[in-house]
Design a protein that fits this description.
The protein is 48% helix and 22% strand. It is of the alpha+beta class. The protein has four domains: 3-150, HPT domain (Four Helix Bundle (Hemerythrin (Met), subunit A), Up-down Bundle); 162-218; 220-395, Histidine kinase-like ATPase, C-terminal domain (Heat Shock Protein 90), CATH 3.30.565; 400-546, OB fold (Dihydrolipoamide Acetyltransferase, E2P) (Beta Barrel).
């Protein structure tokens, strides 16, 4: 088969080859800890042999030669001959395979592996039965190689480029906006045939939207599976022994969300290794096992995904953090432990030494900004000498969300339904004014209230029966006083421009059928506004008591 004929298989080859390399990388980490585990070893053999055959079929001679040499080195481990010296060179080999695949993906030549092959040859020539001639030929038998594409099976899945999925999403968004316009025309004309057609179109669009969203969903294992190798290398560089536990790897997120949170998770894991987990001797003295543990957990919570990154290390030094945060004016003397811990997101760092990994205090602040930029939130929980846990809540998707529309001073605003707890009409006289804020008691719970018309400096309206949207972010509840409740519907989220990003009250905007631009409220920052008001109230009370 000519190279031109093979080019149509290139995308499929690259996709499958990258999966094999990622899988083998993770398996090798397990094998390094348990060299006698034949099940893991045989699994690596199978994956490498498959990759060798695929590469030979595609005429990627260097890739095939390297896979062939890796098999010989794996054989040394199988025969229990000096296995410890093999792992570092194997990790280096898999890194080279990954880099070579990236070169091929960018339409460049595969990497020259001749130097690496010499290193591998030096290892397996210890065994007299293994000759260096096996490597020089490079490409294994063509009969075995060609078998990988010689059988014609029914195609059940295909690779789709991300650009095409993004295009489909953009077209779906435009359809959704036009559908809202048709809904408005339908209500105005009250034509039965038009109503029937628009209703059918709505159902079909819902199906299209659902399936496009499903096509964009990626399991969190896509990023979780990168971390075993990262942790292994960093742990070795710091003479630490670290286990990684993964849970909920089948939870799915929109590809756009995955892209946004990847670097944030990497930074939090590096922080756990660099600052959280102690060296083995220190752990033994503290009565802990010598190896530390990092846990990555993903789970669903209503319309959100919760990701937890925890370690069983030394925990945060809340005393030092409080002192530094108070000097900078970030917190006050009577601040709670939760607020002290979360002040690290404001750039507070107690680390005395800056390393190549972390230590300047800016990292977690950037992580917080990245998470909040996609409508998520992050908090930290710590127990001294026991654990540190970061809890991240993020939406399933950042493209299309369901919102409740409300009217305030003649303007439309949208509130993400995922944050809405309930809608209530309360007697206007039941909303009591405090020193710094208002509150209402609902079901024996004191709920702070923010009047959106006052917050946005609009004309203030008085209502005998005040409509209030009760929203929740994490454990905090807030009432948003509005003029009226409207409908709920799916909206296309458009990002704010650079100027509007400084306004913390809005998370984005959308366009409705009439063409009106509607701001989407940022519930997380409204809750922070409430917290600031209640803290101010506490400070006034404390000052009055002192005086």
């Amino acid at each position: 088969m000519s190279l031109n004929d093979l080019s149509k298989y290139k995308d499929t080859y690259l996709s499958e080859a990258k999966e094999h390399v990622a899988s083998v990388n993770n398996s090798l980490i397990k094998l390094e800890k348990s060299p006698k585990n034949r099940g893991i070893l045989n699994s690596i053999f199978r994956e490498i042999h498959t990759l060798k055959s695929m590469s030979a079929t595609m005429h990627y001679v260097s890739m095939a030669s390297l896979c062939h040499a890796i098999e010989d080195v794996l054989d040394i481990i199988k025969k229990k001959k000096n296995p410890k010296k093999c792992f570092n060179i194997l990790f280096k080999s898999f890194d080279t395979l990954e880099l070579s695949l990236n070169e091929i993906s960018d339409d460049r030549e595969e990497l020259d592996t001749s130097v690496l092959l010499e290193e591998l040859r030096d290892l397996y020539t210890i065994d007299e039965k293994l000759g260096s001639g096996n490597v020089s030929s490079g490409v294994p038998e063509t009969e075995d190689s060609n078998s990988s594409i010689s059988v014609v099976d029914k195609v059940v899945s295909i690779e789709v480029k991300v650009e095409k999925l993004d295009l489909l999403m953009n077209l779906t968004e435009e359809l959704l906006i036009n559908k809202m316009r048709l809904d408005k025309i339908k209500e105005e004309l009250q034509h039965p045939e038009l109503k029937a057609v628009v209703d059918i179109l709505g159902r079909q669009l819902t199906d299209i939207q659902y399936n496009v969203m499903q096509a964009r969903m990626v399991p969190v294992s896509y990023i979780f599976n990168r971390f075993p190798r990262l942790i292994r290398d960093l742990a070795k560089s710091q003479n630490k022994d670290i286990n990684l536990e993964l849970q909920g790897t089948d939870i799915e997120l929109d590809r756009g969300v995955i892209d946004e949170i990847s670097e944030s998770l990497v930074h939090l894991i590096k922080n756990a290794i660099d600052h959280g987990l102690e060296i083995p001797d220190t752990r033994r003295k503290a009565g802990k096992p010598p190896h530390g543990t990092i846990r990555l957990v993903a789970r669903r919570n209503k319309g959100l995904v919760v990701i937890e990154i925890s370690d069983d290390g030394a925990g945060l030094n809340l005393g030092d953090i409080k002192n530094i945060a108070m000097k900078r004016g970030i917190i006050s003397e009577d601040t709670t432990e939760e607020e002290i811990a979360n002040s690290i997101f404001s750039g507070v760092s107690t680390t005395k030494q800056v390393t190549q990994v972390s230590g300047r205090g800016y990292g977690v602040n950037i992580v917080k900004e990245n998470i909040e930029s996609i409508g998520g939130s992050i908090r930290v929980v710590s127990e001294k000498d026991a654990c540190t846990k970061f809890v991240i809540e993020i939406p399933l998707t950042i493209a299309i969300i369901k919102c409740l529309f409300v009217k305030v001073a003649g303007r439309l605003y949208a509130i993400p339904v995922v944050n809405v707890v309930r809608l209530v009409n309360v007697n206007g006289e039941d909303i009591k004014g405090m020193l710094s804020y208002e509150a209402v008691i609902i079901d024996e719970e004191n709920i702070p209230v923010i009047r959106l018309d006052m917050l946005f400096k609009e004309t203030v309206s008085q209502h005998e029966e005040q409509p209030v949207v009760i929203v929740r972010k994490e454990e905090e509840v807030l009432g948003l006083a509005v003029d009226s409740f409207l409908s709920t519907q799916d909206v296309v989220v458009k990002p704010l421009n650079k100027l509007l990003k400084k306004n913390k009250h809005f998370a984005g905007f959308t366009i409705v059928g009439s063409g009106e631009v509607v701001s989407i409220l940022d519930v997380a920052n409204l809750v922070l506004t409430k917290r600031a008001l209640t803290n101010a109230e506490k400070q006034v009370k404390i000052a009055n008591q002192v005086s």
